[in-house]
């Protein structure tokens, strides 16, 4: 079996030694019969008569190169070398024959050649052993001699150092004695001196302090005397002043009540009305004129109310003056009664103070008890906290290492999840681009199939670049109808409609929001119009008949009665609410600490509302008297009407004048009455709302008081510790509720702020539109005045980094700058120049606030780039060119977006070039997705160029000359009988190709981070393809292949370091291949070798290690094959690994790409546009 395993036979014939199946018994005749029946003897005879062994010239030369003489190697013809070698080694020419591509040998000649080769190797081995053994003895002698010299040197040095140490110690002892004696004397002197200084300082300080304390006591005594005497004088004055004020208040209140009753009686009499109406006629006429003027000018109703209130305040001031005079005249008679009232009030006040003191004492007593209990609980809590801290410290000490390990693991897991999520998203982008390409192909096929011989017209305004647009627009005002959407779905197909469904849903949601806002604004507008309609008074004075006036008076009287009844009801309800709140406050005063504040607040609000009602009531009374007087005048006017008609010839009579004045006064009073009724209704509505709010607050306070009472009762039943915990929980819940309320308030304020900002932006946009329109008009005038130049030249003093173009020139701009542009044209220009030009055009569209132009330019640019990439899908230079420009345009949109996170590295000049009106965040995402698609296409092109070279350059080519010629015994390379054709690649071809990739990407200004990611992906592909071929081919699993592979990998690593690409992670991707090369070179015999292999090959899976060991083929008879026991040992040691079951690597796997932000240091006004781009229609702004 060892012989069979050591060779590569075509087939095996089994011969039975005997028919009885006996052990150790051989029947020669039976064996010969079987050999003859199987044809083995005939085969041996034929093979002996012919040439059974054969070698190709290339394999024969590589195998028996060691037998060739040195002078024969100078010849380049391998066939001639093989002829000379065989003629010199085999003397009988019949033993071999030369063919066209192979050499044929008779039986036994190959074994003879192998014997000669083995003898040659054996002689070389003896020579190498002789040289190595001699070198080892020389090294041993030199090592002994060197050790002897070192020992002598160290001994002599030790003796010299010991003498020097003794001399240094002697000198140091003398110095130490000198310093010590000096220090002791100095310390004694300083101690005596310090003691004297301290005694002097204390004595002098004592004398000064005595003088200071005496002066201070005298000064404090004078200050105390001053403050005591002042306090006694102030207390006596305040007591006298308080008594006088109380007496005055009581007396004035009594007089005011009497005066008020008299005024109310007098106000209802006719004489008082006459006194009030003295001088009112002219004022009413003036007010009527003012009202007419205000009605004509559509002024607000508040000015009319102020005019009426002004007359009312004048009358009130008159009444106050009369009341003050009356109080002065009657003040002396009411003195004793006021003193008695003051005394009764004082007794009630003292009683209230005594009750308050009793309540305060009980409250303080309970408070002290609670404080003691809380102090005890705090002590216990402190002890428990100390124990808890000790336990926590112990737990932290134990779990610190575990926490660090867990944090590292979590960090790694988070990074892995981020990479997986990024790769998943980029795979989706890749799938989307594939489906988009498939859709375009199907659409083209459909158009070809649908074409008829006749002519078919398309709309003339439909742009070929805009037809493929499926990106969101900036303007949200243009939203399609549902019928248009269905028609679009029918036209473009189901796949495209499914792709655009997300955009359609977003637009539909936006439409619903705008519809809701429109309805809200419509409702607000209607309310505003209703309020304005109610406020607008009649423009012309009423000239109705007497019946209409009677109806108005009846209606007004009914209205007044209803309002009076409503006011009485509201007043009763307020009194009841006040009593209920007072009762609740008296019952729950010890339970709820926050109730008195809210109660006082409610009482203040009720008191203010009550005072306003009283004022309005007095105004209504005054107006009622005026209406009654006007009614009497109207009746008197009816009685005198015949006389007036009889004497129409006397127009200057006094009665006629009085009647006209009374009618005008009546009309004015009616209008004021209507105004006051409207105001009173509004006041009543507001009052009802306030009452409802107060009721709601009262109910909330009742619920809060009941809840606090329940919690207080529950806490009394609990233990002290539970009470403390329960109190903390209650406080936490209260704080969380307050926090939520504050958050809601903050959200409301932020919402209002956003609304105000939106309004501000709208107004700013209008202003900018006006400025842009003016600027466009001026530019048009200048454009007609000046002649158009041939090329675009830079004006340094006026250029602001913007390029202007007309809408009809957009297709020409995209054609010259995107679709028909070649990278060779911009060889000496600024890298990424098309991206800068597109941003300058975009910035001018933003400057003039043209959202349609921005949308059209970006959409046309994206579609143009897609068409270019589709057309040049195998051109690495074109793909790299547009990847760099797309990334630079994305960086420009970020750098000049106005976001503070992207403006940290900008200069002041660059900050002036930021976009002002539009937020292009959605387009940044679209450009990022487009960059991912271009990157994937770039990797695909590069892999397609590199993949045919990898196997030949990494595994088959002879990087180290003469090493790969050592082939395993019996190895036959599968070659055709045709003459050799050298189509293999070497490692230099791969390096040249990667040099060209690196040069192209650097010349076109691609970001260094992206270049690193490109070469990381390419090196991963080299690793995967090489390792997969190594796992599938037995002929390359040998020690020489491992040496060649390790040398090739070192050359690639050296290339990475020479291009500063070693930080890209490309070397880490080659780690499985490096370990596979080391596995082919390691020893594979003992258990120690198995442990070394397991510890070294961490990047290879168990299946890959076992597969390589199974495929491993020895070079010659001096090396043994890997035993089955060794492979089983490897499997046993690696069984704990959780390796994937996949044997081969996925060479199509693509790492997720990341585009880090890379701002540009160039300013837009420093960029020059070359004339070769044919962009003369662009105007610098």
TrEMBL record:
GO annotation, cellular component aspect: myosin complex
Comp. bias (Polar residues): 459-479
Extent of Basic and acidic residues compositional bias: 523-537
Superkingdom of origin organism: Eukaryota
SMART domains assigned: DIL, IQ
Domain Myosin motor: 1-118
Coiled coil: 270-311, 673-796
CDD domains tied to this protein: Myo5b_CBD
MF annotations from Gene Ontology: actin binding; ATP binding; calmodulin binding; cytoskeletal motor activity
Region (Disordered), start-end ranges: 449-484, 523-549
Domain Dilute: 859-1136
A Pfam family of this chain: DIL
InterPro entries assigned: Dilute_dom (IPR002710), IQ_motif_EF-hand-BS (IPR000048), Kinesin_motor_dom_sf (IPR036961), Myo5a/b_dom (IPR058662), Myo5b_CBD (IPR037990), Myosin_head_motor_dom-like (IPR001609), P-loop_NTPase (IPR027417), Vascular_dev_regulator (IPR052072)
Keyword terms: Actin-binding, ATP-binding, Calmodulin-binding, Coiled coil, Motor protein, Myosin, Nucleotide-binding, Repeat
Entry's family note: Belongs to the TRAFAC class myosin-kinesin ATPase superfamily. Myosin family.
Protein's name according to its UniProt entry: Myosin VB
Provenance organism: Bos taurus (Bovine)
Encoding gene per record: MYO5B
């Amino acid at each position: 079996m060892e012989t069979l395993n050591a060779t590569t036979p075509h087939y095996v014939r089994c011969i039975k030694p005997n028919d009885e199946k006996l052990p150790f018994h051989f029947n020669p005749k039976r064996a010969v019969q079987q050999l003859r029946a199987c044809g083995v003897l005939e085969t041996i005879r034929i093979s002996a008569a012919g040439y059974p062994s054969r070698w190709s010239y290339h394999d024969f030369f590589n195998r028996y190169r060691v037998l060739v003489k040195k002078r024969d190697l100078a010849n380049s013809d391998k066939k001639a070398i093989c002829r000379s070698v065989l003629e010199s080694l085999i003397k009988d020419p019949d033993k071999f024959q030369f063919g066209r591509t192979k050499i044929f040998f008779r039986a036994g000649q190959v074994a003879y050649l192998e014997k000669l080769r083995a003898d040659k190797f054996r002689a070389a081995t003896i020579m190498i052993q002789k040289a190595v053994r001699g070198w080892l003895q020389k090294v041993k002698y030199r090592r002994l001699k060197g050790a002897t010299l070192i020992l002598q040197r160290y001994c002599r040095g030790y003796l010299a150092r010991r003498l020097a140490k003794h001399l240094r110690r002697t000198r140091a002892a003398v110095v130490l004695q000198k310093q010590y004696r000096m220090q002791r004397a100095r310390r004694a002197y300083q101690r005596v001196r310090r003691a004297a200084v301290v005694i002097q300082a204390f004595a002098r300080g004592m004398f000064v302090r005595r003088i200071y304390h005496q002066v201070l006591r005298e000064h404090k005594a004078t200050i105390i005397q001053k403050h005591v005497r002042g306090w006694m004088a102030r207390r006596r004055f305040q007591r006298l002043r308080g008594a006088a004020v109380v007496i005055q208040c009581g007396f004035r209140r009594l007089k005011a009540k009497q005066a008020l009753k008299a005024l109310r009686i007098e106000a209802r009499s006719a004489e008082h009305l006459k006194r009030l109406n003295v001088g009112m006629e002219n004022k009413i006429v003036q007010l009527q004129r003012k009202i007419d003027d205000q009605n004509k000018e559509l002024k607000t109703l508040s000015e009319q109310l102020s005019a009426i209130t002004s007359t009312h305040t004048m009358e009130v001031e008159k009444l106050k003056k009369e009341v003050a005079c009356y109080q002065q005249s009657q003040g002396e008679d009411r003195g004793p009664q006021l003193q008695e009232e003051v005394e009764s009030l004082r007794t009630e006040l003292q009683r209230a103070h005594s009750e308050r003191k009793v309540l305060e004492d009980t409250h303080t007593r309970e408070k002290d008890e609670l404080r003691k209990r809380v102090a005890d609980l705090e002590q216990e809590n402190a002890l428990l906290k100390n124990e808890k801290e000790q336990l926590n410290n112990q737990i932290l000490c134990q779990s610190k290492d575990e926490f660090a390990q867990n944090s590292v693991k979590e960090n790694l897991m988070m990074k892995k999840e981020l990479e997986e999520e990024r790769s998943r998203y980029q795979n989706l982008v890749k799938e989307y681009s594939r489906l988009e390409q498939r859709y375009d192909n199907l659409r083209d096929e459909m158009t070809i199939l649908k074409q008829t011989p006749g002519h078919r017209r398309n709309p003339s305004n439909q742009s070929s670049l805009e037809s493929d647009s499926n990106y969101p627009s900036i303007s949200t005002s243009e939203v399609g109808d549902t019928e248009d959407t269905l028609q679009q779905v029918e036209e473009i197909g189901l796949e495209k409609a499914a792709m655009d469904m997300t955009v359609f849903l977003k637009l539909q949601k936006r439409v619903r929001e705008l519809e809701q806002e429109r309805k809200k604004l419509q409702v607000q507008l209607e309310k505003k119009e209703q309020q304005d309609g109610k406020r607008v008074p009649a423009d012309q004075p009423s000239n109705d008949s007497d019946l209409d006036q009677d109806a108005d008076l009846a209606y007004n009287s009914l209205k007044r009665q209803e309002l009076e009844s409503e006011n009485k009801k509201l007043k009763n309800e307020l009194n009841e609410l006040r009593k209920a709140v007072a009762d609740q406050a008296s019952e729950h005063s010890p339970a709820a600490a926050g109730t008195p504040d809210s109660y006082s607040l409610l009482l203040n609000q009720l008191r203010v509302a009550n005072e306003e009602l009283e004022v309005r009531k007095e105004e209504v009374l005054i107006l009622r008297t005026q209406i009654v007087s006007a009614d009497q005048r109207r009746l008197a006017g009816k009685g005198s009407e015949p006389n007036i008609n009889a004497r129409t010839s006397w127009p200057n009579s006094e009665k006629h004048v009085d009647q006209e004045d009374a009618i005008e006064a009546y009309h004015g009073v009616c209008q004021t009455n209507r105004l006051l009724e409207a105001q009173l209704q509004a006041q009543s509505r507001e009052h009802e709302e306030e009452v409802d709010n107060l009721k709601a607050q009262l109910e909330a306070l009742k619920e809060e008081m009941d809840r606090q009472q329940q919690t207080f009762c529950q806490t009394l039943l609990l233990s002290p510790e539970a009470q403390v915990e329960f109190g903390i929980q209650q406080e936490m819940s209260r704080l969380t509720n307050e926090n939520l309320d504050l958050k809601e308030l903050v959200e409301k304020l932020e919402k209002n702020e956003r609304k105000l900002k939106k309004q501000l932006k709208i107004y700013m946009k209008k202003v900018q539109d006006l400025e842009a329109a003016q600027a466009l008009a001026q530019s048009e005038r200048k454009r007609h005045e000046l002649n158009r130049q041939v090329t675009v030249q830079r004006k340094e003093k006026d250029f602001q980094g913007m390029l202007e173009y007309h809408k009809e020139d957009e297709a020409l701009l995209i054609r010259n700058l995107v679709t028909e542009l070649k990278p060779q044209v911009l060889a000496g220009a600024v890298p990424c120049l098309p991206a800068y030009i597109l941003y300058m055009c975009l910035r001018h569209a933003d400057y003039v606030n043209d959202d349609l132009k921005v949308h059209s330019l970006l959409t046309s640019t994206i579609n143009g780039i897609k068409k270019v990439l589709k057309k040049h899908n195998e051109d690495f230079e074109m793909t790299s060119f547009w990847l760099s420009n797309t990334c630079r345009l994305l960086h420009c949109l970020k750098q000049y977006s106005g976001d503070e996170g992207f403006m940290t590295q900008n200069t002041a000049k660059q900050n002036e070039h930021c976009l002002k009106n539009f937020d292009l965040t959605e387009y940044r995402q679209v450009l990022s997705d487009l960059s991912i698609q271009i990157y994937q296409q770039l990797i695909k092109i590069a892999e397609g160029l590199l993949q045919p070279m990898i196997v030949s350059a990494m595994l088959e080519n002879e990087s180290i000359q003469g090493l790969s010629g050592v082939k395993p015994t019996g190895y036959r390379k599968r070659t055709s009988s045709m003459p050799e054709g050298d189509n293999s690649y070497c490692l230099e071809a791969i390096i040249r190709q990667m040099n060209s990739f690196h040069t192209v990407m650097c010349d076109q200004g691609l970001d260094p981070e992206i270049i690193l990611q490109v070469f990381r992906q390419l090196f991963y592909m080299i690793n995967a393809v090489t390792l997969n071929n190594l796992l599938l081919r037995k002929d390359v699993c040998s020690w020489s292949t491992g040496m060649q592979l390790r040398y090739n990998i070192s050359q690639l690593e050296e290339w990475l370091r020479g291009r500063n690409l070693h930080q890209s992670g490309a070397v880490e991707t080659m780690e499985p291949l490096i370990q596979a090369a080391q596995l082919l070179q390691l020893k594979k015999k003992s258990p120690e070798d198995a442990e070394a292999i397991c510890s070294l090959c961490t990047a290879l899976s168990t299946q890959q290690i076992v597969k390589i060991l199974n495929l491993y083929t020895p070079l010659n008879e001096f090396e043994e094959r890997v035993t089955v026991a060794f492979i089983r040992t490897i499997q046993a040691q690696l069984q704990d690994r959780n390796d994937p079951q996949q044997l081969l690597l996925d060479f199509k796997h693509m790492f997720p790409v990341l585009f880090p932000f890379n701002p540009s240091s160039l300013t837009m006004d420093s960029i020059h546009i070359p004339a070769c781009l044919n962009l003369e229609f662009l105007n610098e702004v």
